[in-house]
Design a protein that fits this description.
The complex is a heterodimer of chains A (271) and B (256). Chain A contains 13 helices and 2 strands. By secondary structure, chain A is mostly helical. In chain A, α5 crosses α12, α9 (160-179) packs antiparallel against α12 (223-236) and α9 runs parallel beside α13 (240-269). Chain B is built from 11 helices and no strands. The A-B interface holds A 36, 38-39, 42-43, 45-46, 49-50, 52-53, 56-58, 60-63, 65, 186, 189, 192-193, 196-197, 200-201, 205-206, 210 and B 19-20, 22-23, 26-27, 30-31, 34-35, 37-39, 42-43, 45-47, 50-51, 54-55, 60, 169, 172-173, 176-177, 180-181, 184-185, 189-190, 194-196, 199.
Chain lengths: 271, 256
């Protein structure tokens, strides 16, 4: 018989049970993905493909565009922070929708977890922590490429990493909360129905000024637009107060969603 | 009169696919339409203001619409021939149920391929209809069969490959290293000529470019050219090769 080392090592070293118990969920997910790390890492390739297409092809047709600070930047520089926000959102959403649903309703992983000292809140926070970690992995390769390509144009860019986590936080919260309402796999069509227009129309690929004034407000209230705008200010420079507003929006949204998701999970799991 | 076996297999796939019609429309009609709106409308307005002459007098929307239809058909073809094929083998095991009947593996495969093409036809017709309503040229109707040919030219060999996979993790790699780079660089969103020469000549041999160039030729009304014939034969050859390989890989996966 092979000797398996005590499976739960890292979280046990954490000082406070409020972090320790969610830590177990993160560790569990990390162990499940142990052999699939290439899948997680290659998720970063997709936005990179878009970035290269913007630089080599579409940029030639469009030329330069205005940054939030008003200065003109290349099309690739304009699109890069938007792709970064989208990739952070995407990485966070993936694990809080399909995989979360699978564990909640099919595999019944959480029912098993709740027979241990874990509470529903620990499960929710654990899944959230894992999603943030995954969003961060997706983003790191992209951020490095942006640095190499010289697309970080402002010193505010030092704050890009925490900003990326904030975007992931908002979307992971949204994913958890929305998935508690999902009944069948077909219901995930709604995710696609909401995500695609948000991804393609949230002023990611062209400035918001192409829209008529009244539609701009619809775009501005979407969470992805807020993420895109936040990263654009940090990467390309612009008014700092607007960055604070976007960050406050994302932070609050994530917090409200997580609270709601925990409540809904309690109803589903502890009926 | 007895129904041909491949059609019976098709009927079975058709019945199984019915609950997913909404998913098909969302992914393969609605998705590409949003692309058309964002690229043809939003990005197109920028291109039109700045470089109106870049596409030889064509608007960016007219440039991108036929290519988007073909690209959507490719994506539907790939999606239909990866997870559903492995699912029928490993998760629902419907291939095993079918192989226990008088159907041969080729019938099972051809029936499945027909159902993928029908799904694709429904989704692509939806896209074309909306594009026509939005005022895109009537010749977009010619692009519909070209898109379906491209879709099945991808689906046939990929299904033959998918049936031999152990896990579905290779499909994500196929997407990230194959489908998405091809989508972004095979002349759908910008002319190939704007790329460096070496890259351009590599991309001219991708199957997506064959479909995209054929579709643009159809809209321009220049289908009777040698280039168009080469594109057409290229796609047909992929389909035939797919069927030939699938006979062997399906037999290997399903028969003792």
């Amino acid at each position: 018989m092979t000797v398996v080392p005590d499976a739960i090592t890292v979280p046990r070293m954490l000082p406070w049970s409020g972090v320790r118990r969610p830590g177990h969920v993160v560790e569990r997910n990390a162990r499940v993905y142990r052999h699939g790390w290439f899948i997680v890492a290659s998720g970063a390739l997709e936005p990179l493909t878009y970035l290269f297409a913007a630089r080599l092809g579409i940029g030639r047709l469009v030329g330069s565009l205005p940054a939030p600070s008003g200065r003109a930047v290349s099309y690739a520089a304009f699109v890069a922070p938007a792709l970064l926000a989208a990739s952070a959102a995407n990485g966070a959403v993936y694990d809080t929708t399909f995989n979360f649903f699978h564990k909640l309703k099919w595999e019944r992983t959480y029912d098993a977890m709740l027979t241990t000292p874990m509470a529903v809140r620990d499960v929710a926070l654990g899944e959230l922590g894992w999603a943030l970690l995954r969003g961060l992995v997706h983003s790191t390769l992209f951020i490095s490429t942006m640095l190499v390509m010289g697309l970080m144009l402002s010193w505010w860019a030092l704050l890009v990493l925490p900003a990326v986590v904030l975007v992931s936080w908002a979307f992971a919260g949204l994913g958890l909360a929305a998935t508690t309402y999902v009944r069948t796999w077909q219901d995930f069509d709604w995710q696609q129905l909401l995500w695609l227009p948000m991804f393609l129309l949230s002023a990611s690929f062209f400035p918001i000024t192409v829209y008529p004034e009244w539609t701009r407000w619809i775009v501005r209230v979407t969470p992805l637009y807020q993420g895109v705008a936040l990263l654009r200010v940090l990467v390309l420079g612009g008014p700092g107060w607007s960055a604070l507003l976007h960050a406050a929006y994302l932070g609050t949204l994530g917090w409200l969603c997580v609270r709601h998701a925990t409540r809904r999970m309690r109803r589903i799991l502890l009926r | 009169m007895a129904t041909p076996y491949a059609l019976r297999s098709f009927e079975a796939w058709f019945i199984r696919a019915r609950p997913w019609w909404r998913t098909n429309l969302v992914h393969n009609t609605f998705g590409p339409l949003i692309y058309l709106l964002a690229m043809g409308g939003g990005l197109g307005s920028l291109v039109g203001q700045r470089h109106p002459e870049a596409l030889g007098g064509m608007s960016y929307g007219e440039f991108v619409a036929p290519a988007l239809l073909v690209a959507a058909c490719m994506q539907a073809g790939v999606a239909g021939s990866t997870w559903p094929v492995l699912g029928a083998l490993k998760w629902q095991r419907s291939y095993y149920a079918m192989v226990a009947t008088p159907l041969s593996v080729t019938h099972i495969y051809l029936g499945h391929l027909m159902q993928m093409t029908l799904d694709n036809a429904v989704a692509a017709s939806g896209f074309t209809l909306v594009a026509l309503v939005l005022g895109y040229p009537t010749r977009m109707l010619l692009v519909l069969p070209i898109g379906l040919l491209t879709g099945v030219a991808f689906a046939a060999p990929i299904a033959a490959w998918s049936v031999g996979r152990r896990t579905d993790s290779e499909f994500s790699v196929l997407y990230r290293l194959g489908v998405i780079p091809m989508l972004m660089f095979s002349g759908v969103f910008f002319p190939l000529s704007s790329l460096p020469d070496a890259l351009e000549s590599v991309l001219r041999v991708t199957p997506l470019w064959q479909g995209v160039d054929l579709a643009r030729a159809a809209v321009a009304g220049s289908l009777v050219t040698r280039a168009a014939l080469v594109h057409f034969l290229y796609l047909v050859a992929m389909l035939v090769a797919g069927v030939l390989v699938a006979r062997r890989t399906y037999a290997k996966a399903l028969l003792p």
